[in-house]
Amino acid sequence: MFRFIVKKAAFWLSKSQIKDNKKEKDQNELQRKLSKNLKDNIAAIKTIMGGSSDVVVREFCFGPNQCISAALIFIDGLSDTKIINESIIEPLMYKSVLVDEQYDFKDDSIKHIETAMLSVSEVERADDLNDAIDGFLYGDVLLMIDGANRGLIINCKGWDKRNIGEPSGETVVRGPRESFTENLRTSTSLLRRKIKNPSLMMESMKLGKKTGTDVCIVYIKGLANPELIQEVKERLAAINIDSILESGYIEQYIEDSPSSIFATIGNTEKPDVVAAKILEGRVAIIVDGTPFVLTAPYLFIEGFQTAEDYYFRPYYMSLLRITRYIAYAITVMAPAIYVAVTTFHRELIPTDLLYTMAKAREGIPFSAFAESVIMLLTFEILREAGIRLPRPVGQALSIVGALVIGQAAVSAGLIGTPMVIVISITAVSVFVIPSQADSAAILRLILLVLAATLGGFGITIGLLGTLVHLASLESFGVPYLSPLVPFESADLKDTLIRAPLWLMTGRPKGMSRNDKKRREYLVPPAGNSHGGDK
Amino acid sequence: MKKRLKLICTMLITSAVMLNLSGCWDSRELNTIGIVSGVGLDKATTPDDIEMTVQIANVSGEQQSSSMMSSQSSSNGTASTGGSNFFNAKDTGPDVLSILHKLTHAYSRKLYFSHNDLIILGEDLAKEGVRDSLDFFARSYEPRLTAYIFVAKGKAADVFDVQPNFEKITAAEITMLMNDPVGSIDKNVVQVSDLLVGLISETTSAVAPMIEVKEQSGKKQIYVSGLAVFKKDKLVGELSAMESRGYKWVKSNIEYSALKVDIEGETAEIIVTSSKGKITPQINDDGSVKIKVEITAEGSLDSQTGTVNLAELKNAKLLKKATESVIKKEVETTINKTRELDADIFGFGDSIYQRHAREWKTLKPQWDQIYKNIEVDIDVKVELVGSGRIAKPLSPEKE
Questions:
Q1: pTM to 2 decimals?
Q2: Which domain holds residue A230?
């Protein structure tokens, strides 16, 4: 059924694309070559930019007798004016005076300027208007010289950016505290600092017709499956969208099953997590303008893994890993099981507990189902309000929430105490597995409705349906439930438990098809092997 | 595309209707049920009728019980509250189901039997036959076959009027009493399913522990002892506390029960940590039947009188022999008593049927006669494994 909706949507989408194509044709006319006449070029750019106030056009003359007129075009605020002053204008104006008086400006002399006069690290050439405009829109400076039919794009990006901070969504007790930033290059540099290896590949592309957002595909050559890289590139190239403001835009365009409640592409703001993932053979997609980096393929079990699992010693972390699975089961099933058991299968409750629960439900005007829906709704409202509220008001909210839900509702006899306990544990458990929280919330509601109509039978139907659905999902060619389904015993070392690092000799089989081994042999810690021999 | 859309719409609508309109046939909120914790069945004063007492947990406290009390005046049934935690609903009728129907006229909540752990049969009703009364408890899906069953000395209804000591509900207290495996060998635990097996079998007689209300310093107290013996579905006799021990040795596993053994003029107490009985029938060449009963028990010395060191190897052997003979004697006493009652409570007949089905056909018609004179070979093996924390009796050593 979902597929039908998706098809329908795709149809509408393609219809609107046809209209877009017509507009593109108009734009093509603007993609003409730069002319040799500087005045014409400036006029053309000014018309296209529509006289925007932040576009700075600085016209000047240089060369012997100031015979050559030139223009610098840049966006105020995007470019570093210090570099423009000291590294572009200054050498051009002062050094060019020293050039021979019979200097004749030719086409190739722009090469001379590029190679000999500009003391700036990165210079590119622009042949047509589009490249030229793109150049200064991305923060560089466009230098055009009268008599040359190409411009120079000189790198002097220098806008205000946020410092590297702590990740707000994924806090850790042990491990790196740095987080990606909105600036693409800062983000890539963070990765490069973690993996100092020539095989770390970063391929850039621009996406979004209007926004022209920089997107960077990061992977390790020889480790990531070439088919996967190809697939990622193809899907990215196929994106037909005018704007990309966050990596979520891309995620929704390239994911395998857009109609599923389960995410098949992961996201994180921690460089160490991305590094670990690309070292397992995954591909990361960094999008300019957001600290959230996408990783693919994304498997179900990844929601239960955290960076800290690998930084702490393995035994307690294995216990925590199991706890996370239990917490997920609780957060998905607890309200459904409570409703099913109290309204259908009372015989399953131990007698003494039944007395207690019956006592607590005495005089409650709502059915257990209505009760749980009200409580879940209240929780979601409180949670949402907690995120949206300005910080200083947050405390007032938690007081109201705790008082209203915890105390008043129970003492007024509106909600039973067991229900408050069930919803509380459900709500708390969600935060243990943040990356699967969105699917859990929907799944919980579906199971709750099934439990209220069909009891335990309904829960079974719901869980079986979910399992079938999960087994049918794929993320970039890797089965979503792997290594559980299809079963891969070697990869179980990092699934239900987290085995000691020295035991995990292989990379996940589904991902890395080339370089499967982390190490050739099982290498126990030094102390271990010595102790064993002597 | 359109056809598919139509199909999907139909499926959506039908499933939505199915889920909502069919209703939740089994769904019931906890505050619409009355949790039954015990059922008593008695013979009513009117002929052919039975009187049923239902002990219902009053989870809502005193407030609710007063409203329940007021509702009973309109019905011909009576109810007595035994405090705020439970109340007993009573009514009479020709069978259980009709009484349950009558109770719906008096009580606002549906009686819920899945947590009923206790069925007490009145002595008078038991004598007349319990088959019809127990049909509901065996057939309906709600009552559990694991509920404990008792025969009351006197009226079953009286048992439910006793105030519990520890638990909140009388029935729960009796259930706890039977749940605990540690205790006396006299205490036989019989569940509804066991009784039903007896009712279905052609030769095996069912038993059920007896329960009575004793008066102790002005306070009513429950007391469980002895066994009621059924023949078919009628109560035919009782085994005393002593006599009921033999049944337990043969039929159930004993855990942590004390046994008194006389040895050389002194008494020793043995804690039986585990015991198991096994029945093996043998048919001799001349067609006579011999039943072999094997009992293996393990225990340790718990206490003793006198100064003889029973933990000593020589004495320990004597003690073992004495224990074996005590158990053997207890079993023999029970078998003799059942011969008198003409009730095969051990299921000897069924054991022959299971092992020697062909011969059983000829034995079955005259089984009552055969049982009276059946040869039973009792073989007891006791293993004494310890002497407690002290190795010697608390007396000066003899030189």
A1: 0.83
A2: 184-298
